[in-house]
Design brief:
The protein is an all-alpha fold. The protein contains 11 helices and no strands.
Length: 282
C-alpha cells in the first residue's frame, strides 16, 4: 500500500507537469490552429534564462517572472518573424517550420549554455508537499485562466474567431495578425511555466525536455487539443498510468505504455476525451 501511495503521489506530480505542457499546446492550437512541435525547445530556452538569473544571485520568484517575460517575448518574435509568412500556407508548412525551429533553438542553447546538464532549484524542497502541491495548483490556475480567457472575454472570442474563421474575423474588424501574435506569446508563457516547474526534477540541458514534450502532446491529444480542462485530466491520467507502469513493470516500458495510451485514445475517440463532437461556432 505504501508503494501504491508513493506511485500515486509521484504520478500526480508528473501528471501536473504533463498537463502544463499540454496547456501550452492547447492554447496555441485554439489561438492559431497550429501544433507547435518547437514548444519543448522554447520552454527549454526560457528555463535556461531563468536558471541564469537565479545563478546570478536573484531569487526563485525573480527567475520565475523573468522566465514568463522571456516566454512572452520569444513567442511574439517567433510568430512575427517565422510563423506569419506561412500562416496562410498549407498546414504542413507550419509543422515543418516548428520542427526546424526546434532544431535551431536546441543548437543555439547548446552554443550559449553548453551541453552539460545542470541542476535547477525547486520552489520548495519537501517531498510532494509543498513543492508538488505548488505545481498542481499552478497548473490548475493556468487552466482556469485559459478557460476564462476563451469563454468569458472579448479578447478570447476574437482569438477563437481569428483561428477558426480569419476572413470573417477581419471583416468584423478583428486584427487577426495581432491575435496570432498574442496566441503564440501566451502559449510561450504557458510553456515557460511548465519549464520552470519540471526543471527541478530533470537536469537542465538542451534536450532535457524532449520526453516531457512528448508526454505533454499525448496528454493534449487525450484531453482534446481544444480543451484546457481536458489537458489537465489527460496529463493527470497519463502521469498516474506511467507512474504505475514504471513502479510495477519497470521504467523501460514507460515509452511503450505512453504510445499504447495514445493509440487507444485515437482509436476510441480521435478528437480527444473532452473535445467538442461537432464544429464549434464562434
Amino acid at each position: 500500500m505504501t508503494k501504491f501511495i508513493d506511485l500515486t503521489l509521484n504520478g500526480i506530480s508528473n501528471g501536473a507537469v504533463y498537463a502544463a505542457v499540454a496547456l501550452a499546446l492547447v492554447l496555441i492550437w485554439r489561438a492559431t490552429r497550429i501544433v507547435n512541435f518547437a514548444q519543448g525547445a522554447m520552454l527549454m530556452v526560457t528555463t535556461f534564462i531563468a536558471s541564469a538569473v537565479i545563478s546570478g544571485g536573484a531569487s526563485y520568484v525573480v527567475g520565475f517572472v523573468v522566465a514568463l517575460a522571456s516566454g512572452l517575448v520569444l513567442g511574439a518574435i517567433v510568430e512575427r518573424v517565422l510563423v506569419r509568412p506561412v500562416e496562410t500556407a498549407p498546414p504542413l508548412n507550419a509543422v515543418i517550420l516548428t520542427l526546424g525551429l526546434y532544431t535551431l533553438l536546441v543548437a543555439v542553447a547548446g552554443m550559449i549554455w553548453g551541453n552539460t546538464p545542470r541542476s535547477f532549484p525547486a520552489a520548495f524542497t519537501l517531498l510532494f508537499t509543498p513543492n508538488d502541491t505548488f505545481i498542481v495548483l499552478t497548473v490548475i490556475a493556468v487552466a482556469l485562466i485559459l478557460v476564462l480567457l476563451f469563454r468569458a472575454t472579448t479578447l478570447g472570442l476574437q482569438m477563437r474567431a481569428s483561428a477558426f474563421r480569419p476572413e470573417v474575423a477581419r471583416l468584423l474588424g478583428v486584427r487577426v495578425g495581432h491575435m496570432f501574435t498574442l496566441g503564440w506569446a501566451l502559449a510561450a508563457v504557458a510553456g515557460a511555466i511548465a519549464g520552470v516547474l519540471v526543471a527541478p526534477s530533470v537536469f537542465l540541458g538542451p534536450n532535457s525536455f524532449d520526453a516531457v514534450l512528448i508526454s505533454g502532446f499525448v496528454a493534449a491529444v487525450m484531453g482534446g487539443l481544444d480543451s484546457p480542462p481536458g489537458a489537465i485530466v489527460g496529463g493527470l491520467v497519463l502521469g498516474l498510468a506511467l507512474s504505475y507502469v514504471a513502479g510495477y513493470e519497470g521504467s523501460s516500458l514507460v515509452p511503450l505504455a505512453a504510445l499504447a495510451i495514445l493509440l487507444l485514445v485515437l482509436m476510441v475517440r480521435p478528437t480527444g476525451l473532452f473535445s467538442a463532437t461537432r464544429e464549434r461556432r464562434v
